[in-house]
Design brief:
This protein is mainly α. The protein contains 5 helices and 3 strands. The N and C termini lie far apart (65 Å).
Length: 169
């Protein structure tokens, strides 16, 4: 009877310990920032954004040059013009300056929108690949190990090579 109790207690402890071990989750890590920066699609998207940025910059610089030329011209001609003409010219320059500022704001908004439009599918593709590799290797959690985040120790499995292989690069 005493042995049966000991065996029963041992079985219960064994089952409890096995359940505890099975309850522990498998954790891996990946530097998502590095993954995204190495994806060919990201390099293409960044090149497209840079091209758009250069176009906006050229437009803004040409508008600023035009504004400065008009300001210089109006300043040089101010003494030969009437007070009303000079006031009208000042208003014209103020309107031109305002339109340049509005264009700059609009360009920034369009750049942010284009960045979101280009980067969202790339990010979604990376996330899907991470999820697929994590599921295939039996990981319950994958922690982003990008610099600046709160991951302090990364001794677990790094999924970056497997995810890059899944994505084909």
């Amino acid at each position: 009877m005493k042995n049966v109790k000991k065996i029963a207690v041992a079985i219960v402890l064994f089952v409890a310990a096995t359940g505890f071990v099975n309850a522990q989750s498998k954790v891996a890590h990946i530097n998502v920032q590095q993954l995204l920066s190495e994806m060919p699609e990201m390099k293409t998207a960044q090149a497209e954004l840079k091209k758009l940025q250069e176009t906006y910059r050229a437009d803004i610089e040409s508008s600023l040059t035009e504004y400065q030329n008009k300001a210089t011209q109006y300043s040089n001609e101010a003494s030969s013009k009437t007070r009303e003409e000079n006031l009208k010219r000042q208003e014209e320059l103020a309107g031109f300056e305002k339109s340049i500022g509005e264009f700059q704001q609009n360009a920034q908004q369009q750049m942010a929108q284009k960045q979101q439009e280009l980067f969202a599918p790339i990010s979604d593709k990376a996330k899907a690949a991470i999820e697929k590799v994590a599921a295939a290797e039996g990981f319950d959690y994958v922690i982003d190990a990008s610099p600046g985040l709160s991951l302090i120790v990364a001794k677990g499995k790094d999924l970056l090579p497997a995810v890059k292989q899944e994505l084909g690069f």
